[in-house]
Amino acid sequence: MASHRRPKQQSRARVTVLTTTAAAAAVVLSANAANAAPSQKLSKDQVKAKVDKLYQEAEQATEKYNGAKEKQQKLQKEISTIQDNVARGQQDLNKLRDGLGSLATSQYRSGGIDPSVQLFLSSNPDDFLDKASTLDQLSAQQVDALKKIQDKQRELAQERAEAAEKLKDLSSTRTELEQKKKEVQGKLADAQKVLNTLTAKEKQELAAQQARADRSSSERVNLGDAPPASGRAAAAFSAAQAQLGKPYVYGATGPSSFDCSGLTSYAYAQAGVSIPRTSESQATIGTRIYDQSQLKVGDLVFFYGDIHHVGLYAGNGQVLHAPHTGAVVRYEAMSDMPFQFGVRV
User: Fold this and answer.
1) d(CA 50, CA 52)
2) How many distinct helices (H) and strands (E) make up the chain?
3) If pLDDT is split at 50, 70 and 90, which confidence band does 104 have?
4) 112-132 exposure pattern, b = at least 16 Cβ within 10 A, e = fewer
5) Distance between CA atoms of residues 123 and 105, nearest Å
6) Residue 260 bears catalytic tag
């Protein structure tokens, strides 16, 4: 007969040990939490340094964005031109076919239509011309008309294929443009988050510091008496000077705001000179100058290893440029940035 025993209960000693252990663990965790170093608040100078770095990264992305935008505009123009050519070519082809049809009608009225012409009118002329045995059944006038039609068809096929390829390229360029736009906006949003960690007083101090830099660099700069690189360079520099104090805005080409290459391309356009839109492309034109002492007013000057920043040489070691978000068009010492080379347009 089975024995009925009461379930064995945990000993009070074990329960006490577990409870004590849990309590001790809680105390340790609490102590660790209390002793953990709080996240260190960045100083105003540290915030400025971090924000400046983010602005520089945003400018790098901005120049890529500008390049994609320029490519998109170029592709759209090329596609429009090809599509216009195709439309005109189709009209020409229709006229050629109508002409051959009229020739066949005339032949029919004068004694019956040639079977070979009937074959053409109901099929592809490429297939028709491939059948060389039928050529002796055609008049010289008909052969010439068919060859013109065949050539026009080939031309239209090539143009349509070219348009299709450019449309694919345009699609990928639009995707790249959107990605770069998001990248710029992301960097600027990150910079704003960092700025938001400052107190109201610190924000005011930083804004005042930026305002002083903008004013002093725009109004109290000794440019010396360096000669302009040329008459047009002088005109471009004068046009850029007229933009002093206007804000930096990514992707902007004036006249109310600018990014770095937007300012330089705008300035030269006012002097009647068309230069590329982006700093990277602007670096490929004209004559390069690696010795700063050889620079003249109006020369393009490029900074950073990836050439993502450009301005106009102003004389006396100064550059006139659109620096970054939060700043305005102003003069600045070239020594503040890693100079790479100049370009004389």
Assistant:
1) 5
2) 9, 6
3) low
4) ebbebbeebeeeebeebbeee
5) 17
6) yes
C-alpha 265/C-alpha 248 separation (Å) is: 14
Rounded to whole angstroms, how far apart are CA atoms 55 and 297?
27
| Residue whose token pair is 């356009």 | 269
Cis previous bond, 255, omega within 30: yes
Q: Which two tokens stand for residue 125?
A: 């002329």
The number of residues making up the chain comes to: 345
Distance of CA 333 to the CA centre of its chain: 28
Phi, psi of 325 (to 5 degrees): -55, 135
Instruction: Give the type of residue at 81.
Output: T
C-alpha to C-alpha distance for 262 and 277, rounded to whole angstroms: 7
pLDDT surpasses 80 at 113: no
Neighbours of 66 (CB within 10 A): 27
324 is catalytic: no
What is the three-state SS of 76-143?
A: HHHHHHHHHHHHHHHHHHHHHHHHHHHHHHHHHHCCCCCHHHHHHHCCCHHHHHHCHHHHHHCCHHHH
**Would you call 4 a catalytic residue per the annotation?**
no
Which tens digits make up the pLDDT trace of 229-282?
999 999 999 999 999 999 999 999 999 999 999 999 999 999 999 999 999 999
| Partners of 288 in the β-ladder | 343
- Please pick, among 4, 308, 309, 324, the residue that the annotation labels catalytic: 309
Pairing of strands 330-333, 318-321: antiparallel
Contact yes or no for 232/269 (Cβ under 8 A): no
Res. 212 pLDDT band, cuts 50 70 90: confident
Rounded to whole angstroms, how far apart are CA atoms 337 and 151? 58
Q: Which one of the listed residues 4, 308, 321, 324 is annotated catalytic?
A: 321
Name the pTM for this structure: 0.70
